[in-house]
Structure formats: structure tokens, C-alpha cells
Specification:
Order of helices and strands of chain B: HHHHEEEHHHHEHHH
Low-confidence stretches of chain A: 14-20
CATH architecture of chain A: Orthogonal Bundle
Helix content of chain A: over 70%
Number of strands of chain B: 4
Mean pLDDT of chain B: 85
Largest sheet of chain B: 2 strands, antiparallel
Order of helices and strands of chain A: HHHHHHHHHHHHHHEEHH
CATH class of chain A: Mainly Alpha
Number of helices of chain B: 11
CATH topology of chain A: ABC transporter involved in vitamin B12 uptake, BtuC
Oligomer: heterodimer
């Protein structure tokens, strides 16, 4: 039986002599994060070395989803508030680098009337990414101020409102974002190796946050607001902190997506992405980073399979018709069944390294 | 003057529609704490059953209206039975995500079984005419929307205040355990609440079909997002708050339509939501919601 987070937080907050050395605890979660990232690294390296180009392209998309889902886990898993607006930050990151780093010749074609001199500005990919992430951070800080003040349900609805606001700005500010049309010509500077590096970094960061003092306090306040408040935990500040961190990770996913795909459009960062990533997180289990990773691996493979049926397959002599919407039905069914029969997802409450160390300890006895 | 009156009627009609849908959400939320994202798909089921009936040769608009309301009420009860009962005692987030899942499933089923493209339904177009009242031309649909919504809300208030089951629903929103101790079955209370919520959605569906003349898989989704926002401004779970929030939302939207120049019209939704988020900064608990401190016990 796992100890409750509140009990752990009490122990952590109380000035007791028995508190573990902070350094060693951090070391442990760093190692734990790396262990969690191992399967991702293994899959990534295998694809890098053996897979044909088409699969590499699919894998890049899956890695972007992985980063988004880990970002989502940082907020949802720790604060236990459903967030339905995270793809707004993915979109902001992607459009940020698109506007800053696209070559001038391309901009003359796509956004010749961009305001604030963006039409004649071209930065290198790294500084574009940093500025885009800064913008994401600012938007997250402002929206987080509102969201962290609200109760759970209202916060979810406001996260949705944020998504609609951002999407509607993408669609209607045509001078800057090109509206409904695809924004093309973004330099393709990110390949699978960089994507792997960032995936590992993000997984470790999410794990460090979860195990940190703030992560623990936030999880405790989600479990019992009264007990946490009585310990002097400022839940609002912690919610804001995890919201901003979550948004930055999602923004990074957007930046990487734009840099590998080279072409983006607003509808990529709308409800479809929310459905996909949310189903992945729920299936894997939102309480842990391991859950986020598991969900992405299982559903990415499953969805690819369903998509191949969706576009119409030939079995023997029978040509099945196109079944548009099949993948959506599958995603929804996954969410509903998971919530009814296993709300904690595949991985439950334990991280991969915790499960492994338990397993080995049991065998040693 | 004519223009001002026309816009006022516009705002009232929009507001009435949002109120109807928001009330349906609030009835369910107040008694079982379920944030029903699948409410839009109840509207969808209602609209598609009218579409199917019309395709099978139904010609009477009256029957179509009755069918829309009945189908929506049935769909709501069925959703509860199949999907929401297993998560009835689960935390709010679990219920919310389940409802989100149901919404995705049903929307995609419309796509899969009927068509991803909008389908035309002309059976209720007769409701949408121009009426000439003295010097003014008004849309019959808007007038009816206002009157029907008013009557529906009145009927709902009477039901909740006068009937035993209505009383049980109101009591359940305070303390479900005590209601059950009084010998009323939990399943009956919840099924009734869902049926009411569905019927309200069905009435909204009638007006939507009459206005658009077509049905599409995502027909109810954006409307329900707005209804949620209406609930949040009013104070989540408060019925009066939902109705008031819906009206306020209607007025904000029409106000923006009038105030914004044509070329910025696309920003209407973004600005509406931005105004509402700004309102929430000052009153996080909503306009009619009560500030609840941790550990408060309701008396």
C-alpha cells in the first residue's frame, strides 16, 4: 500500500531530524527519471538505426506527442485538475518559431503584411525557439494567474476557453498567422536525434518536479486541500508553477514540431490534439511520468493500426469502405473504459524504477 | 430605434438558447457533480433523429419537435445508464473525463455511421419566418425561442418547487444521503435529472435545426462550450446562475457583434471568452456563486 501524499508532505514539511538528505532524494528521482526514459531511448535508437524513412516520420510525430503528454502530466498529474487547453501552448510555440525563423524569401510569399516588422525579420533557429518559449511562458503566467485561483471544474472550463481564444486568434489574425492556410517554409532543423535528447530531458524534468518539494506539496493539496492548507501549503502558487512548467514543455513540443515538419496550420493544435494526448495520458495513468510514457507508446502504435483500417483495407477480394471516425470512436472508448474500470491507468501509482526495485527486492528475498 | 430593438431581440434569443443548455448542465452538476461534456452530443442525437425521421418520410413539424425532445431525453438517460453510472461515486475529474470520452465516441459515431459532412434537414424551416409587427420586421424563430425558453424555465421552476420528485432533486443537490434516507431511490432522482437535462437540450436542438436547416456531427459541441462558460460565470451548479450566465453571455456576444467593425468580426468568440475570463478574475466563484471557504459546512 502506498503512503498517502499528505502523510509524506507532513513528514517533509515538519522539521524532523529523520528527513532524508535532500541531495540523495534528488539523485534518486534523477536516476528514476532516466530509468523511465530508457524505453523511449531504446525505441528511438532502434528506429534511428533500422526503420525506413516513413516510420521515422511517424516516430517524430509520436515523440512530439510524448513531450506534449509529459507536459500535460506535469499539471494534471500533480494538481489533479483536468486541463483541456494545453494544445494552445503547443500552437503558440510552433507559430512563434514559424514567425521568427522562416527565411525572408518565404515570408514574402506567406506573410508579406506581418505587423511589427516581422515580415523583414529572420532569426536563427535557437534564438527563435528561446523567444517563442518566452512568449509561451508569459501567456502561461497570465492565464495561470486566473486558473490557479479557480476551483477544479471552473479551471478546466477556463483552460478550454484559453484554447478557443488562441485558436481564434490564429484563424483571424491572418496578417501574422496566415489564418486557416498552412504556414510553410519553416527551416527543418530538428531530426530524430534532437527529438530523443529533448524527450529524455523533458521526462527527467517532469520526474524531478513531481518528486521535488513543490510537486509533493501540490499532490498533497490535490488529495486533501484542507490538510495541505493547514500545513501552510500555498496551493495557488504551486498550481501556477506547475501550469507554467507544463505550458513550457508543451511549447517546446510545438517548437520541435515546427522544426521537423516545416509546415503547420491552426487545426493541428485544436481539439484533435487534445483528444489524442488526453487519451494517451489517461490510458497510461496520469499520476506518474511512467504512465505518460506508457500511454504514448501503446496508443501511438494502436492508433496507427486503426488509421490503416480507417482509410479502407482490402481483405482477400473484399474492399472495405473508408471508415472515417473510427480512430475517434476508439479514442473515446479507451477513455470511457479506462475511467470505468481502471481510473489510475495502466501504470497505476508507481513509477517504472519503483516497480523494478520492488521486483528485484522481492526476488532477492 | 428599429436596429436597437432588433439587436435587443437578438441578444435575448441567443441568451435564451444558452440559458436552456446551461440549465441542463447545471441540473446534472448540482445533484451528482458531473460535468457533462456529452451534453452537446445529446443535442446531436436529437438533431440526427429528426434527420433520420425526415429521411424516412416524416413530414409533420409537430411530430418532429416532439421526436426531438423525446429523443434527447432518452439519449440523456441512456448515457447515464451506460457511461456515467460506473463513475457515479468517482472524483469530479474522473466524471468529467468520462463525459469527454462519451462526447468523442458519439461525435465520431455520427461521422462513421452517417457522414462527416453536414446533412440538410428542411422539415423545421417553416418555424423560421419574418413576422411584421407594425413597422418592425422580426424573426419568428427568435420570438418563439424567447417565449418557449421562458415557458420552459417557468415549468422547470414549478416542477422543482411543487412536485415530490422536483423537491427530491433540489434536496439531492444539498445532501443526497438524506434524500435516500427519506425513501427516495437514488437512481430515480438521477434519471429524472438527466431526462430534464435532455429535454432542455432537445428544445434547444429544435431551434438549432430550424435556424441552420442542416445537421453536422459537431453541431452541439461549440454551443455546449458556451453553455459551460455560462455556468461558470453564473456559479457552477447554481440553476439561477446558469440561466443568468446564459443571458449575460448572449448580451456580451451581440454587444460585440454590434461594436466590432466588420473585418474584426472573427475575433468575437475570442473577445467573448476573454471578457468572461476577466470577470472570473474578480469573482472566481461566479456571479451568483457563494464563496466557499475550506471546511465550510452547508447548513
Amino acid at each position: 500500500m502506498a503512503r498517502s501524499d499528505v502523510a509524506q508532505a507532513i513528514e517533509n514539511t515538519a522539521p524532523s531530524a529523520a528527513v532524508a538528505q535532500p541531495g540523495s532524494a534528488m539523485m534518486r528521482s534523477l536516476v528514476g527519471g532516466l530509468v523511465t526514459a530508457l524505453p523511449v531511448l531504446a525505441i528511438g535508437l532502434a528506429i534511428l538505426n533500422f526503420a525506413p524513412t516513413y516510420y521515422t516520420y511517424l516516430a517524430l510525430g509520436a515523440f512530439v506527442n510524448l513531450i506534449v503528454v509529459v507536459g500535460l502530466q506535469v499539471f494534471m498529474g500533480n494538481s489533479n485538475i483536468a486541463n483541456l487547453g494545453h494544445s494552445a501552448f503547443v500552437g503558440l510555440g510552433a507559430y512563434g518559431v514559424a514567425i521568427l525563423s522562416t527565411p525572408l524569401a518565404m515570408k514574402k510569399l506567406s506573410i508579406p503584411n506581418a505587423p511589427f516588422g516581422f515580415a523583414t525579420l529572420q532569426l536563427d533557429p535557437v534564438s527563435s525557439a528561446l523567444i517563442a518559449l518566452m512568449v509561451v511562458g508569459i501567456v502561461a503566467a497570465v492565464s495561470g494567474k486566473v486558473i490557479s485561483r479557480l476551483s477544479g471544474v471552473a479551471a478546466t472550463i477556463v483552460s478550454l476557453a484559453l484554447l478557443i481564444i488562441v485558436h481564434s486568434v490564429f484563424l483571424n489574425w491572418t496578417d501574422l498567422f496566415k489564418g486557416n492556410q498552412a504556414f510553410f517554409g519553416i527551416p527543418k532543423v530538428v531530426g530524430l536525434p534532437w527529438m530523443l535528447v529533448f524527450s529524455v530531458v523533458v521526462i527527467v524534468a517532469a520526474r524531478l518536479f513531481k518528486d521535488s518539494r513543490w510537486g509533493l506539496q501540490l499532490r498533497a493539496s490535490a488529495q486533501s486541500p484542507q490538510a495541505a492548507a493547514a500545513l501552510g501549503i500555498d496551493a495557488r502558487r504551486l498550481r501556477l508553477m506547475s501550469w507554467v512548467l507544463s505550458a513550457l514543455i508543451c511549447g517546446l513540443a510545438g517548437v520541435l514540431y515546427a522544426y521537423f515538419a516545416g509546415t503547420i496550420s491552426p487545426k493541428l493544435f485544436y481539439f484533435q490534439m487534445i483528444f489524442n494526448t488526453l487519451a494517451m495520458l489517461i490510458l497510461g495513468g496520469m499520476a506518474t511520468v511512467t504512465g505518460a510514457v506508457t500511454g504514448v507508446i501503446v496508443l501511438s502504435v494502436g492508433l496507427e493500426f486503426i488509421r490503416s483500417i480507417e482509410s479502407g483495407v482490402t481483405i482477400g477480394a473484399i474492399q472495405l469502405p473508408q471508415l472515417l471516425g473510427l480512430s475517434g470512436v476508439a479514442l473515446g472508448v479507451v477513455i470511457v473504459l479506462c475511467m470505468a474500470f481502471r481510473p489510475s491507468g495502466i501504470s497505476g501509482r508507481h513509477e517504472l524504477d519503483e516497480l523494478l526495485s520492488r521486483f528485484f527486492r522481492r526476488n532477492a528475498k | 430605434m428599429d436596429y436597437a430593438l432588433q439587436q435587443l431581440l437578438n441578444a435575448l434569443a441567443f441568451g435564451a438558447e444558452y440559458s436552456l443548455v446551461a440549465l441542463g448542465l447545471a441540473v446534472v452538476f448540482s445533484i451528482m457533480g458531473l460535468v457533462n461534456f456529452a451534453h452537446g452530443e445529446i443535442i446531436g442525437v436529437s438533431a440526427y433523429s429528426v434527420f433520420l425521421a425526415a429521411a424516412l418520410g416524416l413530414t409533420s413539424p409537430v411530430v418532429a419537435v416532439l421526436l426531438a425532445v423525446a429523443a434527447a431525453a432518452l439519449a440523456a438517460v441512456a448515457f447515464e445508464r451506460v457511461a456515467f453510472r460506473p463513475v457515479r461515486y468517482a472524483p469530479t475529474t474522473t466524471g468529467l473525463l468520462t463525459a469527454f470520452g462519451v462526447s468523442i465516441v458519439v461525435q465520431n459515431l455520427f461521422m462513421l455511421l452517417i457522414s462527416p459532412k453536414p446533412q440538410s434537414v428542411s422539415i423545421l424551416n417553416g418555424l423560421n419566418q419574418m413576422w411584421f409587427v407594425g413597422p418592425f420586421a422580426v424573426s419568428s424563430l427568435q420570438v418563439m425561442e424567447l417565449i418557449v425558453s421562458g415557458l420552459t424555465i417557468l415549468a422547470l421552476v414549478l416542477f422543482l418547487n411543487r412536485s415530490t420528485l422536483g423537491l427530491a432533486i433540489r434536496a439531492a443537490s444539498r445532501d443526497f444521503a438524506t434524500v435516500r434516507l427519506m425513501g427516495i431511490k437514488a437512481n430515480r432522482v438521477i434519471a429524472t435529472a438527466f431526462a430534464i437535462s435532455g429535454a432542455l437540450a432537445g428544445i434547444a436542438a429544435v431551434f438549432i435545426i430550424a435556424r441552420r436547416g442542416s445537421v453536422s456531427p459537431d453541431l452541439g459541441f461549440s454551443l455546449v462550450l458556451k453553455a459551460f462558460v455560462a455556468c461558470v460565470i453564473g456559479g457552477f451548479g447554481s440553476l439561477a446562475g446558469a440561466a443568468a450566465g446564459g443571458m449575460l453571455l448572449g448580451f456580451i456576444e451581440v454587444g460585440l457583434l454590434v461594436a466590432l467593425p466588420q473585418e474584426y468580426g472573427g475575433f468575437k468568440d475570442a473577445l467573448t471568452y476573454a471578457i468572461i475570463v476577466a470577470l472570473l478574475v474578480y469573482r472566481p466563484e461566479g456571479l451568483l456563486g457563494q464563496r466557499v471557504e475550506l471546511g465550510d459546512k452547508e447548513i
